Amino acid sequence: MDPALSDEQDEIRRTLRALLFKSCGPGDVRAAVRTPAGYDTALWRRLAVRPGLPGLAVDSRYGGAGCGLMELALACEETARVLLPSPLTATAGLVVPLVAALGTEAQRDELLPRVAAGDLTGALVVPGGTLPAALGLTGPNGGDWAGGGRAGGVQARPAGDGRGWRLYGEATHVLDGHSAGLLLVAARTGGYVCGRTLLFTLLPAGTSGVTRTRLTALDETRPQARVELRDAPARLLGSGEADVPAALARLGRSAAVLLAAEAVGAADGALERTVAYTRSREQFGRPIGSFQAVKHRLADLYVAVQVARSAVSYAAWAAGGAAADGEGEAAVAGGLALGQALEALRLVAGEAVQLHGGIGVTWEHDVQLYFKRAASDELLFGPVHRLRARAADAAGLFDGLVEKRGVTL
């Protein structure tokens, strides 16, 4: 593994950082999250043109850049550094890989060019607010999360006319679900005994039976929604032959990398602002950053961010298939990287509030945006101890211990 960035990767990072520095200040972020879409649609269209953010990981034959996971992770890190509200993760990180992997050629031709052009955003609708479980990040994703019992979740049945499907049920905490032009819905079909989980595409604009409500969230920069489906018409994604839980587990390995990259970017942004504040804030006639105790605390935060960034780089390399055992390495590395990054973000955001002093505890200050992101992300994608426990289980870390002692973990 070579941790150095290629010229193309470095150009993506520099271009995004320069553009966002000019267009995404704290005031811009607060204004964007209060719009109906929850993000700046004009800025999103500009990012679609250059550097082609929505289509970064879309294959070139569909109008995208055809880049890999590392390039998309770099983009996620840079957008999270300024807490840019955008549908990047929900669209490029969750929906695009599933459409590309499971969709028919006609579905890919219809949807992916619109995504790459920035005209269509997507959201993955998983019942019960169980995204980490569905992606296999916190436990085996056998299908119970999709409403495998007699009730609950989202259910699907063939339409009465024999064409298409009808969906009914509810899902909460859907990332960008209130504004997405494409909903990719995981639903159960086939009855209680022989039921299985399938994926369906739904274009909510002008579709009956779809109610989307934006939720009040702790972190306004990551909008969430409740999606209610009442006999809503939908189309099956692909032929229906694919093992959807297995596909979601594979998606989880790359999604964990992107979420971890976002956490690293947010932690780095919070640390950068804190260092700048300690250089300007004076006490006893000198900057507080000149005190040895403050220097030590900032050094510890810097190390935490760099360790998390290294974990993300390795996880991206493993998930990209470069590791000798791509499947096993990616399953372990992604969850560990996400746990490490969430922990680093929590540490940096907490220390940032402390080092900003009294002003740091006011909701109006920028550092609170990072503190909310840290708390919200661990609630949405963690907790950290479950991510690490799942990674240990995937690595078989305790297999010998269980056999030897005859205990169940």
Any descriptors?
globular, alpha+beta, 409 residues, 7-stranded mixed β-sheet
Give a short summary of the structure.
50% of the residues lie in helices and 14% in strands.
Task: Give an overview of the whole structure.
Its cofactor is FAD. Residues 6-119 form the Acyl-CoA dehydrogenase/oxidase N-terminal domain. It comes from Streptomyces stramineus. Residues 257-392 form the Acyl-CoA dehydrogenase/oxidase C-terminal domain. Belongs to the acyl-CoA dehydrogenase family. The chain is 50% helix and 14% strand. Helix 5 packs antiparallel against helix 8 and helix 8 runs antiparallel to helix 11 (367-381). The protein is built from 13 helices and nine strands. Among the domains are: 123-242, Butyryl-CoA Dehydrogenase, subunit A, domain 2 (Beta Barrel), CATH 2.40.110.10; 245-399, Up-down Bundle (Butyryl-CoA Dehydrogenase, subunit A, domain 3), CATH 1.20.140. Strands 1, 2, 3, 4, 5, 6 and 7 form a seven-stranded mixed β-sheet that branches. It has 409 residues and is of the alpha+beta class. The chain is globular and about 80 Å long. The mean pLDDT is 89.
SSE diagram, text form:
Elements: H1 7-23, H2 26-33, H3 41-49, H4 69-81, H5 88-102, H6 105-116, E1 122-125, H7 131-134, E2 154-158, E3 165-175, E4 182-189, E5 196-202, E6 210-214, E7 224-236, H8 244-280, E8 282-283, E9 286-287, H9 292-319, H10 326-355, H11 367-381, H12 384-394, H13 399-405
Parallel strand pairs: 1-4
Antiparallel strand pairs: 2-3, 3-7, 4-5, 5-7, 6-7, 8-9
Helix pairs in contact: 1-4, 4-8, 5-6, 5-8, 8-9, 8-10, 8-11, 9-10, 10-11, 10-12
